[in-house]
Specification:
Elements lengths: L7 E4 L5 E4 L7 E4 L2 H18 L22
Antiparallel strand pairs: 1-2, 2-3
């Protein structure tokens, strides 16, 4: 069975790509290249689902990403 997951990808201050899976709290990984990140996030999802048996039944709808600017003192 195949299941699709939305992935958020960011780049940190050291240049690493960081991926997180919003549908799976705590499921994230990092890599130096996007190709490596893709492989690692697939592995992270598989391991997450192996440990959290009911997580494969989670369904959410991706709406989009928004930027919020706040004043920091």
């Amino acid at each position: 069975m195949m299941k699709k997951f939305n992935i958020v990808v960011e780049r940190d201050e050291d240049g690493y790509y960081v991926a997180s899976v919003p549908e799976l709290p705590g499921c994230h990984t990092q890599a130096k290249t996007l190709d490596e990140l893709r492989a690692r996030v697939e592995e992270a999802i598989k391991l997450y689902l192996e440990v959290e048996k009911g997580a494969a039944d989670i369904t959410t709808e991706f709406i989009g990403v928004q930027v919020v600017e706040v004043s920091v003192e």
